[in-house]
Amino acid sequence: MSSGTNQLSNWVEEYTDDLYTWAYHKLSNAELARDFVQDTFLAAVEKMGTFKGKSSPKTWLFSILNHKIIDHYRRKVNQPLKMENQSFARFFEDAGGWNKNQLPHKWQYEDDAHLLDNDEFNRILRQCLDALPEQWNICVKLKYLTEKKGEEICKEMEITPSNFWQIIHRAKLRLRDCIENNWYSG
User: Fold this and answer.
1) pLDDT tens digit string along 57-75?
2) Using CA atoms in the order 114, 119, 121, 125, what is the torsion angle rounded to 10 degrees?
């Protein structure tokens, strides 16, 4: 076994769990996270000759993984958006104000401060996030789960700021509607 192959085998043993944890955090999909980690090691095999040791192997592997994740999101964001007959007109009056029948409800939970600790609420929230169009889902996760700034997301995803904020606004409307219909419906 060559020293490069031996070295890579050691890296697989040493870094797979950390790479997977990071990929899952970024992608929220176990199968996709496993695929990305595998692709990272395949890319490392192909680029082994370019690794100069100026950074740690872990840093180099994470860099490869992060580039793969960014490319994945760019491809998703640049896909045309399908609006499956979802109209936002019902939320607003002709003059642009909130439709009185669609005003946000006051959410009441016995312990609002700990709502995110409730497993059932988290299940519904995840379902509502997953029901968003892929492009919206990605933007919401980058903004609110990874706490990236809008400008950074726009640059990373190659979208305009106005497009980004429109996506966030529409996604929040859809999430609110989904949560109210599935969590606060009683």
Assistant:
1) 999 999 999 999 888 877 7
2) 110
